[in-house]
Amino acid sequence: MEHSCIDTHVHFWKFDRKRDAWITDDMKILQQDYLPENIANSLKRNAVDGVVAVQADQSELETHFLVELAGTHDIIKGVVGWVDLQADNVEERLAYFSRYKIIKGWRHIVQSESDDFLFGKKFRNGVSALKPYNYTYDILIYHHQLEAALDFVSAFPDQRMVIDHCAKPDIMHKKMEDWKSFMLEMGRHPNVYCKLSGLFTEARWKQWSPGDFYPYLDTVFKAFGTDRLMYGSDWPVILVSGIYIQWKSLLEKYMEGFEEKDIQKIFGLNAIQFYDL
Predict the structure, then answer these.
(1) I need a surface site. Which of 44, 189, 216, 224 has the fewest CB within 10 A?
(2) Structural domain 6-274, CATH architecture
(3) pLDDT per residue over 200-213, tens digit each?
(4) Taking phi first (over 0 means left), then psi (-120 to 50 degrees means alpha), and beta for anything else, what does residue 223 get?
């Protein structure tokens, strides 16, 4: 797999209006089923060899759904599931799920929680139970939650973590000062990686230009370097603001002057190492 291209952030769902209430009517394009066969052509056209399927719903049912999909679709190289990290029996649940080798890590939708959520004792207890299984943790937050996230990652120096979507900076209003200083600070934690994903939807949907993203990319490249950044599409959510090839080619264009080995790291090698694919 050494020259594989891996998309580290893809979602799959069978659309359910009640469960998927976060998909509002201004995201009509997402109000349908999205399964591996719906992305197959985009992956082929863009020379992507595998994906990491990431939870979108907070239920163990969702984790089982992704594990089952992986069993029938070779393109899924790893799963980031959901388990209740605040539960008293979290160790028991992790032990149960450890039989599924395809599960590489876990995620909680912290962006929907209050800003002090990451300080929660029970939640931190759950996160401290991940290490024995070599599980990763995906940090899904908005930029205004970065300060809490810094305290959180400091508490777990040995736990591999990755910031999803560059912590969702406010690209729409071209704001970056606070976000930038927090991200540079975040990059000083060697156990923390960052996904180059999800930025299209933080800009004005379908009204962005590539240059809008460059200052943000400059910051995360400075903060994490080419050893701790990973390509991700955030498909199908990306579709509200652009198409698959646009994001991948924007990153390729941004990295035009980079050494080939660094390009390979960001588009695959780092993911293989981080998620143990």
Answers:
(1) 44
(2) Alpha-Beta Barrel (3.20)
(3) 999 999 999 999 99
(4) alpha
Residue type present at position 152: F
7, 232 contact by CB (below 8 A) = yes
SS3 152: helix
pTM above 0.90, yes or no: yes
Q: What is the torsional sign of CA 157, 159, 165, 168? A: negative
Domain boundaries in the chain? 6-274
Cα(223)–Cα(193) distance, rounded to whole angstroms? 10
Q: In the prediction, which pLDDT does 3 show? A: 72
**CA-wise closest residue to 162 among 189, 131, 143:** 189
Query: pLDDT tens across 17-63, in order?
Result: 999 999 999 999 999 999 999 999 999 999 999 999 999 999 999 99
- The single-letter DSSP state of residue 35 is -
Q: How far is CA 45 from CA 39, 42, 207, 244, 249, in A?
A: 10, 5, 24, 10, 12
Which pairing describes strands 76-81 and 6-10: parallel, antiparallel, or unpaired? unpaired
